[in-house]
Amino acid sequence: MLSQIDAATRRASRWLVWLGAVVLAVMTLMTFVDVVGRYAFNSPIVGAVETTELFMGIIVYLGMAMTTHSRGHISVDLLTTNIGPGPRLVLAVFADLVSTVFVFFLSWELWRVARRTFDNNLVTQIWEVPVYPAAFVMAAASSVMVFVLICQLLARTGRLVGADAGDA
Q1: Which pTM value belongs to this model?
Q2: Under DSSP, is residue 142 helix (H, G, I), strand (E, B) or coil?
Q3: What are phi and psi of 158, to 5 degrees?
Q4: Longest Cα pair distance anywhere in the chain, in angstroms?
Q5: Which of 26, 77, 99, 131 has its CA at 20 to 30 Å from residue 84's CA atom?
Q6: Contacts by 150-156, CB closer than 8 A, 24 or more apart
Q7: What confidence tens digit (pLDDT) does each residue in 54-78 have?
Q8: Measured between alpha carbons, how far is 94 from 69 in angstroms, rounded to an integer?
Q9: Which whole-number Å values give the CA distances from 88 to 69, 99, 156, 165, 167, in the listed order?
Q10: Residue 167's pLDDT is what?
Q11: Distance between CA 123 and CA 131 in Å, rounded?
């Protein structure tokens, strides 16, 4: 069961990364056209800055689940280099637990913010584009990251309970 959930979160994470790549490509093209329009024709794209701000938030969150899945986040091992594999695994399970709880509450708050932006009809300043679609995308992507963290926590806890401390 855990392997099926892990495979599903891997597929979802890959899909989110591809979506993030598309958003990044659109943002890059828009920035290029904006710069050329600004300096060559004295006609920049109105609202390009606010669109870039929305896209940046979306891009960051779309990549978080895959980074988590591949364990690509920065980690510091100053304390764990001189301890054995058993205590290292215990610390790793604790770190996974703390990360999961933290990201769960972060995701929860993102859903609340997304709902508020929808309820209050929050829009950007220049184009008056609704902000809620970007907020819901960020909240959904963070939820995928929560599921990835839960899978990693359960897998590592299973190794700890199974006394297979060499897999830390």
Answers
A1: 0.84
A2: helix
A3: -60, -40
A4: 68
A5: 99
A6: 150/100, 151/2, 151/5, 151/6, 151/9, 152/68, 152/71, 152/96, 153/93, 153/96, 153/97, 153/100, 154/2, 155/2, 155/6, 156/89, 156/92, 156/93, 156/96
A7: 999 999 999 999 999 888 887 777 7
A8: 17
A9: 20, 16, 11, 8, 10
A10: 44
A11: 5
